[in-house]
User: Fold this.
Amino acid sequence: MKRKNFSGAECPVARSLDVIGDWWSLLIIRDALDGINRFSAFQKNLGIARSMLTARLQDLVDHGVLETAPASDGTAYQEYVLTEMGRGLFPVIVALRQWGEDNLYQPDEQHSILVETQTGEPVTRLELRSRENQVLEWQDTKVRKLSPDEK
Amino acid sequence: MKRKNFSGAECPVARSLDVIGDWWSLLIIRDALDGINRFSAFQKNLGIARSMLTARLQDLVDHGVLETAPASDGTAYQEYVLTEMGRGLFPVIVALRQWGEDNLYQPDEQHSILVETQTGEPVTRLELRSRENQVLEWQDTKVRKLSPDEK
DNA sequence: AAAACAAGTTTCAAAATAAGACTAGGTTAT
DNA sequence: ATAACCTAGTCTTATTTTGAAACTTGTTTT
Assistant:
């Protein structure tokens, strides 16, 4: 009765969740995008149990989302840094952030915001656009299953 | 030793994950966006244990992502349909899908694709753009913590 | 040299998950 | 009308995952 895994799924959403769909992975990745890269920094910032963090970091390294590197401060320790693949999760984090901002705060409640480094301005909304540059909602799209030849 | 919860977090990503961050929620939402809305349809499509599905659907209803409605086919059963808030997760699902497509398939491997309903064309890439309409990468943004007045 | 820190591992208890049997209404076929 | 089947669950049990805290080993700081 191991937890189900979706690593062989036909649906890319399922495969993604197989890699980063558990309770802590996306928060680790969020922190990594914020520049956190040491074991103890993740642990302190997240309040995660050390044993959990060890397991999650190892999973992410195994899946190619993070990689280890010698510490940049010259000490003998190591760092966990995002790979190209890991940095590709930036839109996922932004989408989660914007949904949370929109739906999970009281009108008067404060939260951190994402800003453009250059200008300090809050970032714009992440949107899917059609080839004609219109914003696409979910009704405007559909999933096409495997191409005709394969079932 | 309850699982940690992030419902009071300052970070919107954490709050979002508190609602949809467990193992099945985003797959249920993916299916709901595909038009699935009956208990047994979710169960069959996902291969999830019935007891799990019961719990997850209830959580999502409690959080306002789904709501129940009388079955649209005239039977006495009910349906689970996305609320406005739930439909707002569309970009999250698209972002996960595109990341999976980019990183989790062999070059020759097949998978479902998301297309524009109107044209049948695959959708374009979901991108965060600056106010000058340039694509923003993670290096181009930063998180600004709570505004100056509150710690 | 001693104290403190970093990055874990180990142990144990509690919670989450999976699988399948069981159930009570609702629907369909005969 | 009733038997058979479907829908949407609940219940039970076994296993896995998670969380908390103590313990460890090597590294760095004082």
Observations:
- Chain B touches chain A through 76 residues (CB under 8 Å).
- The beta strands of chain B are 66-70, 78-82, 113-116, 141-144.
- The first strand of chain B starts at residue 66 and ends at 70.
- The first helix of chain B runs from residue 12 to 20.
